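Open question from group meeting: does this chain pack into something compact, or does most of it stay loose? Before anyone orders reagents, we agreed to write out a predicted structure and look at it together. Recording both the input and the output here so the notebook holds the full record.
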Amino acid sequence: MAAKQFASMFTAQLKMMFREKQVWFWNIFFPIILMVLFMIIFGGNGSSSSFKAAIAVADPVPNASSSMLLSQLQQIPVFEMKEEAPITLEQGREWVENKDIDALIVLPETEGVSEVGLIVNREREGSATTQAISGILDRFIQQANLAAVGATATYTISMDSITSASDDTNYQDFLMTGMIGLSLAQGGLFGMVELVDMRKRGLLKRLRMTPAKMGLFGLAGMIVRLMLGIIQVVILGLVGVFAFGANLHINIASLAIAFFVGALVFNAMGYLFSSFSKTMEAYMGVANISSMLMMFLSGVFFPLESLPEWLQPVPKMLPLTYFVDGLRDGLIYANGVFSSSFWLGMSIMAIWGVVCFLLGSQIYRSKSIAAAR
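Structure tokens returned:
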């Protein structure tokens, strides 16, 4: 009897999911569109191009020192000169203002003076390109000063990078796994909206008056959403790999644990939202606020280290942060389930899920949802 009830409820909820076009857009097509945009903007469409900066050089009063510096600047490979010959200061300022170049380098007007000017657009003053140009120019001036006094550098920097992931990991991998985590989270956050609609139309009350078991109804809905989550992982993974050259190094155990824990947690959050939302519009508003907050503060698009220092504690309190980290463990880092940080993240997520579910259950009981209409 229970099995027959479950099969009927599962079939009904599956049909409801296929009928709702918004479900497919927000859970499948919207994450794909967002991922494609970020891949194109920040990932270079999978190609590994070296850094280049468009600059121009102004030499107001040509002299021996400025000529020497100009010839050396022209040999720096990352600098792309808009004009090989020096330009006027007015022309350079105009190009910078119009963003035709990234920076204007002004050579010293007096021979023997090592002051070199750098003019950038104020709107781009804090950009990575401007910081890179400033760093390169600073190193260039230091080398020029040493050469002027006939000295050689005693100390140099040797830099290497290591990672727990494979050597072929790149931003495409980082973004793809972040988008998979975000789409799964949104599936749970927005997936309980039908409960609000059913309560508003009195369907929950009628369902409770039938021999149907509410536990089986909830279980059927959960499995349908898990199936949708698997579809999301597969589709986004295929788009990332075949369209943008993302790399996968899968660890089945950690991926499965992170997937199921995350699905339960965000469904519990959606359950909580449905418990106090009187209308579908109110539910969608709360779910959207939660989604937007976590989207930009949980390391989906960019590493958490890029956030301002005063904002760093916030991501550590959000469940999506640990969900995305867990998916990356299972999809690109292949760390397995022996990492203490992995289990710490899963534990924090589990606390979120338990608290949300208990709060939602308490609110449902206190409001006597069955007698809502």
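Observations to bring back to the group:
Strands lie at 53-58, 79-81, 103-106, 117-119.
The longest helix spans residues 214-244.
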